[in-house]
2,5-diketo-D-gluconate reductase B
Amino acid sequence: MEDQSTVGAAGVPAVGLGTMGLDGDAGARSVTDAIEMGYRHVDTAQIYENESVVGRGIAAADVPREELFVATKVWADNLAYDDVLESTAESMAKLGVEYLDLLYVHRPIDTYDPETTLAAFDHLREEGQIRHVGVSNFEADELDTARAHLDAPIAAHQMEYHPLFTRPELLADARDHDYAPVAYSPLAGGLVTEVDDVVAVAERHDATPQAVSLAWLRAKGCAVIPKASSAKHLRSNFEAARTLELDADDVARIDGIERERELFPE
Ligand SMILES: NC(=O)c1ccc[n+]([C@@H]2O[C@H](COP(=O)([O-])OP(=O)(O)OC[C@H]3O[C@@H](n4cnc5c(N)ncnc54)[C@H](OP(=O)(O)O)[C@@H]3O)[C@@H](O)[C@H]2O)c1
């Protein structure tokens, strides 16, 4: 079953495969399995050092390139103008694609300069090498600055979001500007099994805590990119994100959790 639902004006597929840590033949196999079971959005990054693995997984899948939404991220040391262009060309070669659906600024640090970095992203988009521009790990003021410099609209903001770490003000910015909030580490890297309120909601629905975490994020309007290796986890995440519906009380209960864990502080 294909994933048809999308988020934001750019139409980012609502369920994607996170690939951080997928490596080697087994990692490529996970990517192929995910695509063949219906995932259409694949998320990687230069810093994961697995773009070739992800590319092999994409190439082996029996799904045409134009049906896929392939996203990668330019790491913090490649954000000078020429380095954006060169490293993106390398990323595309490793991924085996002639264009990217979404290219993110991974973090606004180090060589990031809004004027020159984002000019390079605009250039890539004008040349047709990328379809959409995204940002990741930005704060509200950094989103404003990016909008002031970009010709392209921001299509997606990838941010840490799970029951133990939320940024409601950033979700509101996404809603106000009609771009996709993409929740990374949507299972809190596996920690959702230890969160009592998530476990309780899961028991009520005869579901797993992982499924509930994904359903809660979808209810909040986020796209989700859970990482999984086994076919069993890939399939259960895909199904949960598309079909499990929480009621308002469930969502409120998870919203009310006392937050304690940011997994990826700067
Ligand atoms: N933009 C950024 O700065 C940034 C930072 C971090 C992550 N990300 C992106 O977000 C993606 C996801 O985040 P993440 O990798 O940190 O963690 P995550 O998706 O929250 O959790 C992944 C962990 O949960 C396990 N898992 C997955 N599905 C499961 C299921 N149904 N039942 C039980 N366990 C399950 C996985 O194990 P198995 O592999 O064994 O299935 C893995 O250990 C990354 O892969 C990456 O693409 C982006």
Summary: The first helix runs from residue 24 to 36.
